[in-house]
Fold this protein.
Amino acid sequence: MHILTLSHLYPPVRIGGMEKIVQCGVESLVERGHHVSIVTGNYKQLPRPPGKSTLNQVDVYAGELLDIEYPNQFITEHLYANFKMIELAMALINKKQVDWIHAHDWFTAPAAETLHKMTGIPLVSTIHYSKYHEQQGRETPKGNFIVELQKQLMTVSDKITVYSKKMIDNVKEILGPDTECSYFPIGMDARIPQFDLKQFKERPNRVVVIGRLAKEKNFSLVLRAASIVQKKYPDLTVDLIGDGALYEDLKGLADELKVNTHFHGFIESFEEIKRVLRQSKAMILPSYYDSFGLVVLESLQTQTPVLISNQVGAKEISSGIQDYIFSPDDSVALAEKMEKVLETDQVLATHMHQIRIDVNHKYTRENMAVYLERIFNIQERSIL
């Protein structure tokens, strides 16, 4: 079985959920003896050497970079990257048998549809998030362009795959309730360790938020909630990791509310992010929309409790997380959840124990590969 995977950035060059999930899925299949080739784009902001390379037994083919100034950079660069992916993929298809094309979201949609129609090779698409649902009430021309690309990719695909129940519902809302949509769990690189309540109590009263400083991430809610919690815990500090258009707005709000806030900016090293997490009492994900939220699993790996909005797909990971879910419009409810974690009692330890059991059982690389094997009709194996 030879799977040709189309991904816009491979290997991952920045911390981010989509690219890391692509890599984990590819490597989990290779570890079980399957042949996977990657065709990837090249972008001016995150360039990589063009041509063929091999990473962890995976052949990676990167397109050439369009290194010139051009109008409408977003559209031009996106389409040029897809043209190069088509060129590289056709050269590979002409030399080797390819059984499946696996396209990752709208970034690769034009190339995926073209290759599928030119060659007749069956197409599986993985949709990592729904732009239609993410931008509700905040539509932009760029966002609408992405919505149409996602819809077209799903329409022409033989199989649609996602990794959360939330995304299954999103796909059915877009294409219709009878749409077939296959699920696979995200594979973790490391298991969640046993929660140590004694060591956790020694952590300072800090909470951390991680992600793009964008409206849909809703980080202002954390600052508003922190201003309430600081009345009881005056030493509370908010660590904000990420960059984006709302930096000045968030900094101004933190000053206005007199919230102790440390703006780290973008941190490329995941080891550094984990260091910050290990010095925090909670990681908060207050998004208006998040198809899953890989940062939830990554935070739990550092024994850091998570507080997430009810619009985050990762709320499905365990029954133990249910007491730590809040509305993205309710700063008072979030403040109550924050105080609950800062109290650091045995109830928290019990919930963390349950989360550890559930996540370590389901979100493994082997389990991810088993589900993907079923999607690609490789062979029947028992689902763990």
In short: Residues 380-384 have pLDDT under 50 and may be disordered. Residues 213 and 321 are 25 Å apart (CA to CA). The first strand starts at residue 2 and ends at 7. The radius of gyration is 21 Å.
